[in-house]
Design goal:
heterodimer; A: alpha+beta; B: alpha/beta; 5 helices
């Protein structure tokens, strides 16, 4: 027969069932101990956490659990205490190094059932394993500390403002120093309290954009300190979300010092530039690669009539108006050429500047491009100067030479003609005839020199008139060869003119051509030893004729070949043979050939001989003096 | 035919003397003028067959003389040969003003000048 349970028994069973249910469902480890501190039962979480099973646990004395791993002095004390006196203890922290599972940090909660003053029958011991949580907390704390030290240690000011209210939420020490507020004061401020008045609307506008998360701001702007003073700061800002809330985080760097330094440097640079530019006696202008003027010194202003304010920013062609002296037409765009070609270009000779007021002055000089670090042209410097004085001096010099030469020539011609007449008419002793011949040779030399000087002055003035006329070069050269024959016989050098077309009609200035021919043939005869030969030849080539003089003479030493066409340039071996030579002949021959629109060059081997080539157009253009 | 008459207008007396002597010896009748003004007068008066005219002259330069000779109905048919030290454009200018020929003094020996004058009359 079924035994009827008492109400008390029923309540007790329910309570136990309730307790069992709680033990089983609680997620934290929980053990039920008897009053003798032996384990009545433990939940799954306990077994899992401490890696033990029910068999090893139930019925055992708690301190002997798991090879006496639970023999924790603190726990003993607590449990003794609770049995004797206390109702319970809560969140009692113990740290213990378990053999099997390592160090653990646990919070212990215990209850005795029933409560005092009755004798306890069971103890509930809940163990909360907070090891992981503690680790996280520690890490968090460490990170917070390091963050704080970074935050406060940063040299830049950092501010965090709530996107919604624009009020500051946090700031670091640097921002306090920078603005002169305490942290507490800052927390009562907003964006518009720290900006320079005029910058507030802009700052607010930017803040709104930032608050939408749409912008990363980076700008140098004026800020305001607590004391009202203004400083410039590099501000960069961005929006951040912290715990779901939007903030604007700003970094401020005080650039006052940097700015001042920059300004000082700029001032020095500018002063230096200005002093240098002002000290230069030439007009100096620099333009960028679009031709826009960026530098213009005061001499440039004087020369062009444009002030630097007027000039800077304009295209150079609007300021530097170049015209050719001879034609009055626009001069060559040497600046554009320098910018295009990336090399220094000289202003053409005889260029003038038309000033703002229309007056013209002769100028000279050059444009030199400058390059960036990658070698790309990014502008050019133009230096120009007034050459009025130089021109005058040059003109005077040339006029003097021309006048002196002319005045020298008349008496020379007089002497020559008189000697000629004496030799022809008078009966003279052989000795006297010899002396007269000597005079004649000397006068001829003087006369040649005077002619050379006169020609040089003409060529150098660019004022050698060219009077081209139709001339058959074959008889023209033949006649000249005949003239030279007495000299060639005297020197014992065979002078021939054999290679040539039957006739070669050209239009050229025969006087100038004669100068070229004279210079080359007389040199060849002069510097060829007895028994040698001088061959003159003429050849027609498309549009040109080529006149050559080939000798078997001393040649031009290699190292002097480059100077042979220069004024007074002579070969060292030629100087030995004829110390009195002027060194003007080939210079003049080159000038003459160029004036006729042709060119002259040579091939030479020392002690073997030389060939001079003169290439001239079949038709030379006329030019007035 | 009588000997051709030549007026030599040349200010350098040495040159003038040599030219005149050489031309006289060659059989010409030679008259000497040492400046531009004298030269003009002499040409108008003597009506020579040829004038040898220097360009750089005192009182009146060769171009002016040439211009006036060619302007005047009395003298404009008289041929003029420029005898000058100048060359280049001056010659061109002289020829433009009506000179028949030119001789650059420094480029010729005396004999060649006489030959040129003879050639002129033989043409």
């Amino acid at each position: 027969m079924r035994k009827l349970k008492t109400l008390k028994q029923l309540k007790m069973e329910e309570a136990l069932e309730y307790a069992e249910g709680v033990v089983k469902t609680v997620r934290d480890p929980l053990i039920v101990l008897g009053a003798d501190l032996r384990v009545i039962s433990a939940n799954k979480s306990f077994y899992r956490t401490f890696r033990v099973n029910a068999k090893e646990t139930e019925g055992r004395f708690i301190y002997n659990l798991g090879n006496r791993q639970w023999n924790i002095p603190k726990l003993r004390q607590l449990l003794n205490n609770i049995i004797k006196k206390n109702n319970h203890f809560d969140n009692f922290k113990i740290e213990h190094d378990f053999e099997t599972i390592g160090p653990k940090i646990m919070l212990l909660n215990a209850r005795r059932i029933p409560r005092l003053p009755e004798k306890p029958r069971i103890l509930l011991l809940a163990i909360e394993d907070v090891t992981e949580r503690r680790k996280i907390e520690d890490a968090l704390k460490a990170s917070e500390e390091s963050f704080k030290s970074i935050f406060d240690g940063a040299g830049d000011g950092i501010l965090l403002a709530e996107a919604e209210t624009k009020k500051f939420y946090a700031g670091n020490k640097a921002i306090c120093r920078m603005l002169g507020y305490s942290l507490k004061e800052i927390s009562h401020l907003g964006i518009s309290d720290i900006c320079f008045k005029k910058a507030i609307p802009y700052a607010v506008e930017q803040f709104k954009e930032l608050a939408k998360g749409k912008l990363n701001l980076s700008i140098n702007m004026p800020m305001k300190r607590k004391n009202g003073s203004v400083f410039y700061a590099d501000v960069s800002a961005t929006s951040v979300k912290i715990a779901g809330k939007l903030y604007v985080m700003g970094f401020l760097r005080d650039t006052t010092e940097h700015r001042e330094l920059q300004q000082a440097l700029e001032n020095i640079r500018e002063a230096k530039e200005k002093t240098i530019l002002a000290a230069i006696g030439d007009g100096v202008m620099a333009c960028d690669n679009n031709g826009k003027i960026i530098v213009f010194n005061h001499v440039a202003s004087e020369l062009t009539g444009f002030s630097s304010n007027e000039a800077i920013g304009r295209h150079y062609s609007q300021v530097l108006s170049l015209i050719r002296e001879d034609t009055d037409k626009p001069g060559k765009d040497f600046i554009g050429q320098a910018l295009r070609e990336g090399k220094t270009i000289l202003m053409a000779n005889h260029t003038m500047i038309a000033k703002k007021d229309g007056t013209k002055i002769p100028v000279a000089d050059s444009a030199a491009p400058f390059f960036d670090s990658k070698g790309k042209i990014f502008g050019c410097v133009v230096v120009f100067r007034d050459v009025t004085k130089e021109r005058e001096v040059e003109k005077m010099k040339n006029e003097f030479i021309s006048f002196a030469s002319h005045q020298l020539r008349s008496p020379l011609v007089g002497i020559q003609w008189v000697i000629e007449r004496i030799l022809k008419k008078e009966k003279l002793t052989i000795g006297l005839q010899g002396y007269l011949q000597d005079i004649r040779v000397s006068v001829q030399r003087l006369s040649d020199l005077v002619n050379d000087l006169l020609n040089i002055s003409r060529f150098e003035r660019g004022k050698s008139a060219i009077l081209p006329k139709q001339v058959d070069l074959v008889p023209f050269i033949e006649n000249y060869i005949v003239e030279c024959t007495p000299l060639s016989i005297k020197k014992g050098v065979a002078l021939t003119f054999e290679e040539h077309p039957e006739a070669l009609n050209v239009v050229t200035d025969s006087n100038i051509l004669r100068n070229v021919m004279q210079s080359l043939v007389s040199n060849a005869l002069e510097y060829t030893h007895q028994g040698g030969s001088v061959k003159v030849s003429l050849e027609k080539k498309d549009g040109h004729f080529l006149f050559t003089v080939q000798d078997t003479g001393i040649g031009i030493p290699k190292k002097e070949q480059s100077v042979i066409f220069e004024k007074f340039g002579r070969g060292s071996n030629a100087k030995l043979i004829k110390p009195s030579g002027s060194g003007l002949g080939l210079y003049l021959a080159k000038q003459a050939a160029e004036v006729l629109g042709g060119k002259i060059w040579f091939e030479s081997q020392e002690n073997k001989g030389t060939i001079f080539y003169v290439k001239l157009p079949l038709k030379s253009k006329s030019k007035n003096e | 035919m009588n000997n051709p008459k030549i007026v030599v207008i040349e200010d350098d007396d040495v040159l003038s003397k040599v030219v005149c002597d050489a031309l006289s010896e060659a059989g010409f009748e030679v008259l000497q003028a040492l400046d531009g003004e004298k030269g003009l007068e002499m040409v108008a008066l003597q009506k020579p067959d040829l004038v040898l005219l220097d360009l750089l002259l005192p009182k009146k330069d060769g171009f002016e003389v040439l211009e006036e000779l060619k302007k005047s109905s009395i003298t404009h048919d008289i041929p003029v040969i420029i005898l000058s030290m100048l060359s280049g454009d001056n010659i061109k200018k002289g020829l433009g003003l009506g000179a028949s020929d030119y001789i650059v003094k420094s480029q010729h020996v005396m004999d060649e000048i006489v030959e040129k004058v003879k050639d002129f009359f033989n043409k």
